[in-house]
Amino acid sequence: MPAAPARDRDAELDDGRMPFLEHLAEFRNRLRNAALAFMVAAVGCWFIAEDIYDWLRAPLDSAWNHAGLGTEGAQMAYFSVTEPFWVYMSVALWAGIFVASPLIFYQLWKFVAPGLYKTERRVGIVFAVLSAAFFVSGALFCHTLVLEPMFEYLLGLSSKHAQPALSMKEYLDLIRDMMLAFGAVFEMPILIYFLAKIGLVTHKSLWRFNRWFIVVAFVVGAVLTPSADVVSQTMMAVPMIVLYNLSILVAWMVVRNKQKQPGAVPLDD
């Protein structure tokens, strides 16, 4: 009896397969759609780029005031006439990535979906929304909870005889790298879901690796955070550990659903 459902599921995969040239054409179309979504979002963000930059500065201004360096926030400097223009252009481009991320992830999913079963293709919208939500949540977590303590720590190390001179571009580069790193780290549950779906990991194997992952999390925190301070590294490592354990639950749910399918092989490990 299980043979017929298995044949039907294999037929679903055959229906989704396409020749190599069609596969390249599909990749081109999905890349084009993602690029268009990004361009529209970036153009829209250009008109509010200065407001976005002021929002990005908020953690620094708060830390600046707490450090007793002033009451009106940090004073930014620029070292070429064109620097403010390129800073705001960069703000618009990176903000465009965040704004367009649901559509970008959706296009990625539509490219992968033909190689999946019909029941798995239906979760495309959910995948796009959750991927974007996790990515943006990681960036917001960094902006809201990580940057201000990090700046307070770093500004506290400065000499009382020296006044910080902060560059617009260098500040943007720092917080951009920090927020992108946190956004990428927060994608871990989505990554684990796919690895569990294709059978590369299980909840049991992830749990056995748990204590080693704590060490890995702090090493990754030291590598990914542009700042070398302990505060930012710890603030990245702790969410990674929490997300890893959440991913174990995700993997358990995937394995449990697989075991319920007809003809499923019992899991030994």
What does the main sheet amount to?
2 strands, parallel
Instruction: Enumerate the strands of the largest sheet in spatial order, edge to edge or round the barrel.
Output: 1-2
How many strands?
Answer: 2
- Give the number of helices: 11
> Percentage of helical residues?
over 70%
Write the H/E string, N to C.
HHHEHHHEHHHHH
Q: State the separation between the terminal residues, measured CA to CA.
A: 27 Å
Describe this entry's structure for a reader.
The model has no long low-confidence stretch (mean pLDDT 80). The chain has a two-stranded parallel ribbon. The chain contains 11 helices and 2 strands, in the order αααβαααβααααα. It has 269 residues and is mainly alpha-helical. Helices cover 76% and strands 1% of the residues. The chain is flat and about 70 Å long. Helix 2 (20-46) packs antiparallel against helix 4 (83-112), helix 4 runs antiparallel to helix 6 (124-156) and helix 8 runs parallel beside helix 11. It has helices at residues 3-16, 20-46, 49-66, 83-112, 118-121, 124-156, 168-185, 188-197, 203-208, 210-224, 230-259, and strands at 76-77, 166-167. The two termini are 27 Å apart.
Short description:
By secondary structure, this protein is mostly helical. The chain contains 11 helices and 2 strands, in the order H-H-H-E-H-H-H-E-H-H-H-H-H.
